[in-house]
Design brief:
Oligomer: heterodimer
Structural class of chain B: alpha/beta
Low-confidence stretches of chain A: 211-215, 269-273
Strand content of chain B: 15-25%
Radius of gyration of chain B: 17 Å
Helix content of chain A: 25-40%
Radius of gyration of chain A: 17 Å
Strand order of the largest sheet of chain A: 3-4-2-1-5-9-10-8
Shape of chain B: globular
Order of helices and strands of chain A: EHHEHHEHEHEEEEHHEHE
Strand content of chain A: 15-25%
Number of strands of chain A: 10
Order of helices and strands of chain B: EHEHHEHEHHEEHE
Structural class of chain A: alpha/beta
Helix content of chain B: 40-55%
Largest sheet of chain A: 8 strands, mixed
Mean pLDDT of chain A: 87
Chain lengths: ~270, ~230
Amino acid sequence: MKREDFINIKRVVVKVGTSTLSYKNGRLNFQRMGLLAKTLSALRKMGLQVVLVSSGAIGVGAGRLNLTKKPSTLAFKQALAALGQAQLMKIYQKLFDNYNQWVAQVLLTKDVMTIPERYKNARGTLFKLFEMGIIPIINENDTIATDEIEFGDNDTLSAMVSNLVNADLLILLSDIDGFYSADPKTDKEAKIIRSVTSISPELEKIASGSGSSFGTGGMSTKITAAKIASEHGIDTILALGDQPSIVLDIINGKEIGTHFIADKIKQNSIYHE
Amino acid sequence: MEKKRIVVRIEIDTLSDSDGKLIHDKMDRLAMVLSNLHNSGKDLLLVTSGSIALGTKKLNIDINKKDYAEMMAAAAVGQAELIKLYQKYFDQYNQMVAQVLLTSDMMDHSKKENNTKNTFETLLKMGIIPIINENDAVSTADIDLKDNYTLALNVADVAKADIILIKTNEEEKYIIQPRNKLKAIFVNTEQELFCKLLEISNELDDQKSKLYDFPDSIEEFSYANN
């Protein structure tokens, strides 16, 4: 898809990470979340179907308990996620309410893609929510996700969700404004790449060396996400999330961030609803 | 990073319409921007008035009668109402608050001052925003002065705050004399107040100097070692 065609898309998945939602100390940035709510509500009013994939639960849980150190054990992280997810949704609901936009919480695990029954159920739920004009806010279900089945990060989750709902576009909002030829933090020669047609092994190699120091992702998982999306015919944009209204500019076709162009024309999934 | 400590002083009429009825949206927005400021890593103390206004309204008392006992009773009723409201709105943003009632003589007794200081420090360490008001049930300062600038400045002093943010008008601005290294920022409207609070929240940790670049619309005075 060309950028100028984004204006005609029907369904978009927007992924925000902890670095977008929070201050550096890990506590929520309500101003940004408010702007995100406003932006996505605007997309809905434009007639788009919107999915928000959001991290942040563990951080909010840690903030609720006023923890100063990062949680170490898996069980503790899971407990914090359960605590924080409820708080996070409360705040999303509050902020989206300001724009008369309803949201719903959907917690998924990776096996939603591999177990046909679950796939069908999740798809059914999400498409019903679209029909009702509601924005699903998706997170990993940290309570039941163990080492083998967890996504590891929400970048991959967002790509799988994009596939699940046959999205036209996946927008990854991050703390970096795009994909660079080298790590811009260490290499002054690094240049932003505006458009990627094929995710080569060399590209993956560049990505594995750079990324954000916050959250679990980093550049490597973003490339993996773009690759998964691309394999299913879905374009991905990687852009800076400190001004979430940037999503509107992206949809309007402005040259923002890095555009990963899908390998092939989007196909409907093997499992039909 | 050096942690900034900020005192915000609010008059309740900021949040009221002409009938003294609290405006939901403004209260909500205030709680949001203050929670946001706190989340951004700043210590925050809120000095508020409004207990008498809320109490007289609830009890349907004529405020012009100047009956001190009645006003103080109204203050006691209104304070409960006031803190209930703050708690409700702050809770929406997962922000815990505490009520601290002070009298102006706290600065005259070192023990009182020390107690107050310890309470502030402990609350701030626990991530709680202290909501401070004049203890109107035992003091008439608020009723007499009809303001709590003095209280706000005392709080800033005891808490060793870096910044005090006050919504005030042109005339009253000049009677406010911050001590020590306290930086006073005056705003005229609540819109300015909200913008200022967001602006302070958005300063990057590594861009401390940005704090001192204010837009022209907001007057800012720095009193060094007055």
